[in-house]
Design a protein that fits this description.
- This protein is of the alpha+beta class and about 80 residues long.
- It has a single domain, classed as q64v53_bacfr protein fold, CATH 2.20.140.
- Helix content is about 20%, strand content about 45%.
- Strands 4-3-2-1-5 form a 5-stranded antiparallel sheet, covered by helices on one side.
Length: about 80
Amino acid sequence: MAVCFLQRAPTLKGGPRFYRIAIEGNLFGEWSVVFEWGICGCRGTRRIKLFNDLRAASLAADVSRNRMLSRGYDRA
C-alpha cells in the first residue's frame, strides 16, 4: 500500500487541512485509490475509485497529488 499525506496551513476561512491519497489492493484483484480530505483533528470525507491495474491507479493518484500541491498543500 502506498500512501501520500498532504497538509495545508490554516487560512482565514478555516483551520489546517489535510489530504490523504492511498493505493490499496482489494480482494477482487482490483486496485483502489482512496482519497480522504478535511480539517485536521476532525473526521474527513472519503472517496474511493476502482481501477483494473496498478498503473492506472498510480497515474490517478499522481494527478490528484500534483493538483493538491498546486493548490497550496505541502508534503507532511
